[in-house]
Amino acid sequence: MNAPRSIPPPPPDRPDWRAARDVPHLLRILWAQPPVRLIAYLLLLLAAVRALMWGSQLLASVTVTVIAAYGLAFLANPLLAWLESRRVSRMVGVLLLLVVTIALTTLLVMTVSSQVTGLINGIPDLARNLKDITSSGLDRLDSVKGAEGIKDSLSKYIDEQTTNLTTNTGPLLERLVNAGPDVLGTLSSLLGWLGQLGFIVTLAMYFMLDYDRAGRSVLSVFPRRWQPTLLRLSDDVSSSFGGFLRGQLLLMLSTAVLATAGLMALNVPNAVALGLLSGLLSIVPYVGIVVAAAIPMLLAISQGALTVGLVAALYFIINQVQGNVLGPLIMGRTMRLSPAAILIALLVGLAVAGVPGAILAVPLTTLFKRWLKRYWMTTPAYRGGGSIDSGQ
């Protein structure tokens, strides 16, 4: 005969808040109510978000300074590690890197400043050449019914934009001379930027000297059981984005050097400034090299059609060398992606988020690939069953 099953006693009723003896008892009764706890948690979350937004606005400049300094140390760390493997101490390596950077920056500024001024002063000539090309291409539209005013409207638009651009981007020296009482304000602003830059470089030097310790200090803030996972995630992100940034910097530098050397050989004016501009624009996939080629081609119109064609051929060669030689050589080693994967990632990033998406597509794809290998290809669900290689 089976024993009668015991029936559990009914749960006690929640006490009514009106039965509270004192304030602490009332608070305990209210906290026992799930809706009260939900409202309290939502209010705490809202207060935390507001405090975070207030703190981010208050410490925005400090945050940007620290991130910029740590980014410089992050980019320089592989070079310092390589010097350490050649028995050069980190202190000597940091000082050597600082001296070389200051020397190259000073030389570059002294060389490029006059060319940048000449390039800005040459904007009217550049616009005039563009206007001549456009007018010659639209001459036949005058005979087309309904298109008589296109050439005049386009010429007027080019003239207006040239005037605005020349007025707004005049040489800095001319602004300082004609600014009158605003000179002191301009100089103080310039000194403020130089001081900020000096502080970033100084902080970056300390990060370079204690790079491993700085990373461990940030990691030690989190709970111990989280630290191994956070360390793996930080290694994945640093490898993906660090390799992309270093590879992109090398590609930009190679583009600037090739463009400068080629333009100097063709006697195109302001070749160094145009080469640096080409290196900066090369960060934008596909479109950047086209814009970089258009400016020197317009400047070379006054030297004849042969020079224009040679400039176009120069940038075509640079594009081919970058895409077929330097790109696979540098990005292939740093990112470990096939050319087809890189092209698909660029197209997807461009379709989703435009130019910023295309720029971030390659490092995000590399990060996704690393996480796929680490977290999916090691699971029993992936390893179970047959494989393509085994024919099962």
Automatic annotation (TrEMBL):
Manganese as UniProt keyword: no
InterPro entries assigned: AI-2E-like (IPR002549)
Domain of life: Bacteria
Membrane association type: Multi-pass membrane protein
Keyword terms of this UniProt record: Cell membrane, Membrane, Transmembrane, Transmembrane helix, Transport
Location in the cell: Cell membrane
Entry keyword annotation includes Cell membrane: yes
Transmembrane segments: 36-53, 59-80, 92-112, 190-209, 249-266, 272-291, 298-318, 338-368
Pfam families, A to Z: AI-2E_transport
Record family assignment: Belongs to the autoinducer-2 exporter (AI-2E) (TC 2.A.86) family.
Descriptive protein name: AI-2E family transporter
Source organism of this protein record: Deinococcus knuensis
